[in-house]
Amino acid sequence: MLRLKAFYNCVLCIALLCTLSWVDSRADVIIDFKQQSGLDEDFGIRRAVYLGRMFNGVTAGSFRRMDAMHAVITIAQATQSDNVQLFAGDGSSNFDTAFAQGRMTDTGIRVVNRTQNNTEVLRIPGDPSDTPAFKIETSAGVAIHETLAAKNYLDFWVVGNSGSGFTVPSVVGAGNANFLMRFERSTAVPEPSSILLATAGLGLLTYRLRGSRRG
Amino acid sequence: MNPNKLALAFLLMMHWVLPCPVAEAGVIISSTVNQSGYKIDFPGSVPGNTGSASRIGVFDFDFATSPSLFTFLQARIRFWVQLPTQAEGRDAPWIILAREGVTDQQIRDVSLTNPSSITEHAIRTDIRITANQADQGTGVVEKKMFNFEKLTGAQGLALASILAANASHRLEAWLVSDTFSNITVPAFGETFSFVGGSIVSTFQPFSSTLDLAYVPEPSSVVVFVLASIVHTMRRVICLRRRNSNQDKSKDTIEPCFV
Fold first, then answer.
1. What are the structural domain ranges in chain B?
2. What are phi and psi of B162, to 5 degrees?
């Protein structure tokens, strides 16, 4: 009878954890779209161009991280040798200081124009409608999400070598030059499957231990 | 009129004729082409700086006769460009006019020499393009010169030589900076909007117009000068005839036009 009661308690515990972890950790997508700033900085260390601030007022939620992303940027003449990187973090000016203070995180995305004689809209890693998102490293995903949790916004920069020749416009002819960011968020460590396995294992162990003592 | 007076009159006539308003303004010839988008980077003359040269386009001029007979006086250009906001004053990039097919090295040679330099391949003009804070923003905007920029005599002659050397009278225009490489003169510009959850792109081709002003061809000038001489001679003859008829009554004296 006691064994059965312990078993029922264990099942109830697992069910409760499953429900809570699902509610708290289900993956979601946040997306924002805005005109690029084009503010350009080059203090001799690197060349940084501010894209703009996004996700104003978006709440972070607990146990989450940025898992994957799509970036759509209007840019020209970014080459492999320019090493143009996409950063996300907190800071709308003076990138070098923000980076030194650890307020900027490298998303891992590298930006290279397809052709060097046009101002292009680059979809990285491809069009969000038909291309799987770019996988963000766990540490970077956690850091970006922590910034969002703390500030309720994210600032985006494209950063290349000092003196590099890429250009990021705010207008292109008659139209605005926009950028779009789409993040897929999922649970931060530990992920739901680990919680479930650990809980089930713990319950089973307790059940067996109690059984062996009485047996 | 004695020969000395005639020579003086001729000199005065030439003095009035040659710098006449028509010659000052010149004949304007235009060419509009699609922008090229080609760009090269090079080390600037100041250590640490990276310069760049962007080919705006290859312009095609429809001259009726050989441009080697012309003297080019002025030039102006309209094109689409993205400039850094610091591109002002002496840091503003300038326009180079070059023969069609000029090599990257030849452009570099002209770019890194003193202002208003001339080689057999290219001319560094005094036309500078500045980043205007009044523009809509940092981006690809239209730069349009409303006034012509004067070319020096040497620049005008070199331009005539470059144009005459090309059977199609083609000429390349470049935007060159010794200080900045983050300059874009694009062939196409793409923008996008986010409608109904999908990305919709729009493409805009960019074109450029180069205007050149030159003096009328020498044959016209010669005809004009000859006409002036004939006019002077007729007046001289008329005055002589009037002087010889001084004894006649005033009513019968033939009036001489001025």
1. 1-25+216-258, 27-214
2. -65, -45
**A173/B140 Cβ within 8 A:** yes
Least CB-CB distance to A118: which of B50, B187, B192? B187
pLDDT digits (tens, 9 = 90+) for B219-237: 556 666 676 788 788 888 8
From chain A, the residues in CB contact with B206 under 8 A are 173
Q: Does residue B57 sit in helix, strand or coil?
A: strand
A43 in B contact zone (CB under 8 Å): no
Does B141 contact A175 at a Cβ distance shorter than 8 Å?
no
A160-A135-A38-A173 Cα dihedral, nearest 10 degrees = 110
Q: ipTM > 0.90?
A: no
Interface membership of A129 toward B (CB under 8 Å): yes
Q: Quick: pLDDT tens for A30-70.
A: 999 999 998 999 888 899 999 999 999 887 666 778 999 99
* Angle between helices B3-17 and B218-244 in degrees, nearest 10: 140
CATH T-level fold of A26-189: Jelly Rolls (2.60.120)
The pTM (predicted TM-score) of the whole model is 0.77
Q: Is A165 on the interface with B (CB under 8 A)?
A: yes
